[in-house]
Amino acid sequence: MLRIAFDPIYAHPLPEGHRFPMLKYELIPEQLLYEGIITQENVFSPELVDEEIILLTHDADYWQQLRDLTLPPKEQRRTGFPLTQRLVDRERCIAQGTIDGCRYAKAYGIAFNVAGGTHHAGSNWGEGFCLLNDQAIAANYLLNNNLSQSVLIVDLDVHQGNGTAQIFENDPRVFTFSMHGDKNFPFRKERSNLDIPLDDGMADEEYLTLLKNTLPQLIAQQKPDFIFYLSGVDVLSSDKLGKLSLSKEACKERDRFVLSQCKQAGIPVQVSMGGGYSPQIKDIVEAHCNTYRVAVELFF
To answer: Which InterPro entries match (predicted)?
Structure first.
C-alpha cells in the first residue's frame, strides 16, 4: 500500500507573505485524491518527533533554542522564517512523517512525505526555510535502531543538500549524493560524498545523462539497504529560483529512473518532496504529482 505522510499542520503555519510556497502541501494530496491515484486510506498523519530522536542529529544547544523560541534574530533571518511554536511543531511533524515513512517503505517498498526535504538544516543551524533535517533525522533513527546498516541519500533538489552533507561528513554509514546548481544557493557549499555541480541553463538530455551514468554505479558500489530520495521540482525551467531548464517530462523521467533503480535493486526508498518555486502553483503541483504517479506505476 502506498503510504503518504500528510497533516494539516503543514498548511499555512506562516505569515501571509510566506504562504504561497506552502500551498502545494495541501494541493498535492487533493489532486491525487481527485485523480483516484490515492484514497484517504493511503494518507497518514504523523505525531511530533520526540526530542531524544532529534538529538541523534541536531546539537542540543541548537535544538533548545528552537524549542524555547530563543534562536537569535540573526539565526532566525538565516532560516527565512520568523520563529514560532507552530513552525517548530510543523518541522517536528515533518521529521516524524519521514521516520514513519521509512517503516512503511520497508514494508511496501516506497513511502512519501508530502513535505520534507529540509536539507539545508545542519547539525547546529537552520537555513533556507529548513529548521530540522527530516531525512537526516530519519536516517539516524534507522541506523541507531539497527533498522539499517548502510544508507544512500539521493538529493536531486536544485540546491545542494549542504546541511545533510555536514551532518554525515564523518559517518561512513551514510553516503550523501547531491546533484545541484553550481552557482545557486547555498553559496557556501558543504562537501557531500559525491557532488555533481550543474551549469546554469542545463536542459533535459544532459541532466538525465549525468544522472543515468551516476546512480546505478553508486548503488552497486555502496550497496545501501535503504535509500532516501529528495525529489525537488525546482529543477524545472519555469522555477524562479532554480536556474536550470528541465521540462516537466524530463523531471518525471528523472523520478522514474531513480525509483526504478530502487525497485530493481529491492531497496526501500523514502521520498520527501523538496523545493518548487514556479510562479504558477499548478506547475509545482503537477510536477510533484508526477512523482507519485510514477511510484504507483512502478510499485503497485
So the answer is: HDAC_classIV (IPR044150), HDACs (IPR000286), His_deacetylse_dom (IPR023801), His_deacetylse_dom_sf (IPR037138), Ureohydrolase_dom_sf (IPR023696)
Neighbours of 1 (CB within 10 A): 12
Are the beta carbons of 250 and 210 closer than 8 angstroms? no
pTM, full prediction: 0.95
Identify whether the C-beta of residue 178 lies closer than 8 Å to the C-beta of residue 194: yes
Domains and their CATH numbers in the chain: 3-299 (3.40.800.20)
How many residues does the structure list for the chain?
300
Q: What does the DSSP 8-state code read for residue 55? A: T
CB 136 within 8 A of CB 168: yes
- For residue range 152-184, list pLDDT tens digits in order: 999 999 999 999 999 999 999 999 999 999 999
Is the C-alpha dihedral spanning 180, 186, 188, 194 positive or negative? negative
- Whether 143 shows a pLDDT value over 80: the answer reads yes
Note the pLDDT of residue 13.
47
Helical (H) or strand (E) element with 229 = strand 226-230
CA distance 191 to 24: 30
SS percent in the chain: helix, strand, coil, step 5: 45, 15, 40
213: pLDDT confidence band, cut at 50, 70 and 90? very high
Tell how strand 3-5 and strand 43-44 pair up: parallel
Amino acid at 300: F
3-state secondary structure of 279: coil
**pLDDT reading at 45 higher than 70:** yes
